[in-house]
Amino acid sequence: MPEPSPEILGRLSPPAWGRWLELDDDRRALRLYAGGITDPVTVLADEGWEAFELLSTSRALAEAGGLGEAAERVHLVPAGPVPAASAAILGEVRSDRLVAFGGGRVIDSAKAVAAVGGGGVAAIPTTLSGAPMTAIHRLPEGRSADRGVRPSLVIAYADPMTSAPEPRLRATAMNALAHGAESLYTPLADPLSRAAALRGAGLIAAALDRARDTRDRAGLALAALLCGLAVDRAGIALHHVLGQTAVRVLGTPHAETYAALLPQTMEAMRGRAPEQIDALASALGTDSDGICERIRDLGGNRRLGQLGADRERIGEVIEVAMSRPELEQMTPGKVEPSDLVEILDEAW
Known about the structure:
This protein is an alpha/beta fold. It has 17 helices and 7 strands.
C-alpha cells in the first residue's frame, strides 16, 4: 500500500458532519468520521474484523456502540501505568485480534498485550492521544518483545475524541501538538512527517482559536491523528524525554505536564532547529519570537507548579532524563543538565 504524499497531507481537509475521511498507507488504515459513534461493529466487519476481543473501561463501554455485545470477550483495563495494567489482563486474552476502545492508556495496553502475544490491534480512540497511530508503547511488567505493535486499523469518531472538558481538552491538544512538533527536527524526520506535523499544528490552532460551540471538532481530531502519524515516523526527542520523565518521577498527569512544558521546550528548540521552529510558528499563526506565548495561550497557560509536583525532586528528573539516549541521538545539539533545569524552572 503506497504512502500518501506530503502534498496530499498538506491539503487534507477534515470530514464534514456525517461524512468520513479515509487514509491508507503502508502502516495502517485510518477511517475518520465526523460526529458521534455510529456503527463501529459494521465498520470493523467491513475491514475484515468480524471476530475480536475488546479492551476498554467500564466508563467507555457505556458509549461503545455495540462493541461489547459483538466482542468474543471484553477485558476491562485496570487503572494504573500501562506495564501494570497490561500485565493484569495479559493471561486472560485468547484472541490474536484485539480492538481497543478508549484513551491512550487502553490503546497502549492493547498494543502491549499484542506485542507479547503476537496479535494485531484495531484502535477506536476516545481522546486526542497519539497512541492509535504509533508503535510506541511500554510492555507488560516482566515481559519482553522484539517489536512494538502499531494498530493496523484506526476507526476514529470526532465527537468522542474531542468531548473532554475544555481545560482537559486543551491539555490533550498540546500533547498532540508535541507529537507533531518533535516530528519536525529529529534525524528521522522526513517530508511526510513534516507535512503531517505542520498540517496538524495548523488544524489545532484553528480549532482552539474558536469558541467551543463553534469549533471544528473533526479538524481537531484529524490534527491529533496527523501528529500521531508524524511522531510514528520521526520518533521523540527532548520534549518527550523530559515530559515522560517528569510524569514518572513527579507523578503529575501526562497531558497537563506536556502542556506546561511545551512552550518552554519549543522556546529551547529555537536555536537548535531554527528553520523547523519557524515553520511550526507559522503553522500556529505566529513567528518564532512569539511561539512560547502562542503555545501557552493555546494550552490554557499551564504551569508545573499547579499540578501538585514536588519541586525538590527536579534534580531527580534531570538525572533520569539525562540518562535517556534520545537526548543525544534524537535532539539537535548537545543537551546539558543546565538546559533541562532552565526549561523546568521556566515551566514551573
